[in-house]
Amino acid sequence: MNKKGYTIPELLIVLGFVTLIAIVSIVKISFAFSDINNADEIEKQENLLIKNAALSYAKSISDRVKNEKVVYISGEELIENKFLVDENNYKSLKIKLYYNESKDEINYEVVSDKK
């Protein structure tokens, strides 16, 4: 007998394989995007940590910053004074603290980023 087309079980098997491939692909892609979002969030949290450590330390040496107008501090200095935890990736950090007389506030700028 001459067959034209496919039987229902054959079509169901092919449909099952296509569905399985689609599900696996979607799951892998969603994990890839969640990893990207996690890396961005980690970087934001580290930047916030550095900002808070720098400004807290600036308050503790505010007289020095106000007198000198610009003070450069290192990651090691923040670690020694217990404003950051002792991690190697913060030791190479360089931060510029500067006094804004018109607003009477101390600001910061990261000059040399962590490695």
- Computed structural class: alpha+beta
What low-confidence regions span 5 or more consecutive residues with pLDDT below 50? none
Question: Mean pLDDT across all residues, rounded?
Answer: 87
Lateral arrangement of strands in the main beta sheet: 1-2-3
Q: What share of the residues lie within helices?
A: 55-70%
Features:
115 residues, alpha+beta, three-stranded antiparallel beta sheet, 4 helices, 3 strands, 17% strand
Task: Record the SSE blueprint.
Blueprint: H1 8-60, H2 62-68, E1 70-74, H3 75-80, H4 88-91, E2 94-100, E3 105-112
Antiparallel strand pairs: 1-2, 2-3
Brief characterization of the structure:
This protein is of the alpha+beta class. It has four helices and three strands; from the N terminus they run ααβααββ.
Could you please describe the fold and organization of this structure?
With 115 residues, this protein is of the alpha+beta class. The protein is 61% helix and 17% strand. It is built from four helices and three strands, in the order ααβααββ. It has a three-stranded antiparallel β-sheet with strand order 1-2-3. The chain is rod-shaped, with a radius of gyration of 28 Å. 13% of the residues are buried. The model has no long low-confidence stretch (mean pLDDT 87).
